[in-house]
From TrEMBL:
The protein, known as: ABC-2 type transport system ATP-binding protein
SMART domains from the UniProt entry: AAA (SM00382)
Source species of the chain: Polymorphobacter multimanifer
Keywords per UniProt: ATP-binding, Nucleotide-binding, Transport
GO molecular function (one): ATP hydrolysis activity
Key word Transport present: yes
Amino acid sequence: MIAGLVKRFGSAVAVDRLDMRVEAGSIYALLGPNGAGKTTSLRMVVGLERPDSGSIHICGIDALARPLEAKARVAWLPDEPLLYEKLMPLEYLAFVAGLWSVPAAVAAPRASALLDALGLEAKRNARCENLSRGMRQKVALAGALIHDPDLLILDEPLTGLDAAAARVVKDMLRDRSRSGKTIILTTHILEVAERLADRIGIIRAGRLVAEGTPAELSGASGETLEDVFLALALG
Ligand SMILES: Nc1ncnc2c1ncn2[C@@H]1O[C@H](COP(=O)(O)OP(=O)(O)OP(=O)(O)O)[C@@H](O)[C@H]1O
């Protein structure tokens, strides 16, 4: 899906010939220390940064040659999502659905179901500016799901969520993957990667230094994922 991806900022190489393949219907966790190039890589996948070289294919579509088609299949949830502060969650979701040309008759029940599933029923009529950080994160997640993307890419999706909310989001991601949708996420919480992901990639200085199932990465030598991660990512 990603081959030979390179991104430089001035003379600094943020992503260095990155290769990554994510199977449809799977959950892939990208791990790596601060500054490893995770966000930059994913921003290129969703079309927010132009790579210096390399290729990106999303659902078989060449994302650099046919960006609009590719983008229609993807949703991106940044680590600090922006909401329209004066809108209420349902209004925000209706607005985002409109951007994706989702018909109102489809979007409205989907928005209600998402807010209910995320435990935001009581906040339907609150303005986004008055929501807590975790609630805002949930509204943004609902926004990312409103056009039912084939590929959902999330940057640190569980940061700032309480335990119950984190559980709801993890369950939602698992359900999506079971229904055939693909998910890529970054996380610094190794346990999340270990429990949620089908495959884990560890990135260091812009390069993939290890990849496998959680069991493959940690199982062979009897080490924990944390041992493996610290040795590979920081060592
Ligand atoms: N717009 C930019 N201009 C210049 N340098 C940038 C820019 N965006 C990212 N970088 C640099 O690229 C490198 C990779 O950053 P990136 O945000 O992709 O890392 P990350 O793995 O997501 O880190 P973190 O875990 O801290 O979020 C860093 O050295 C960063 O300073």
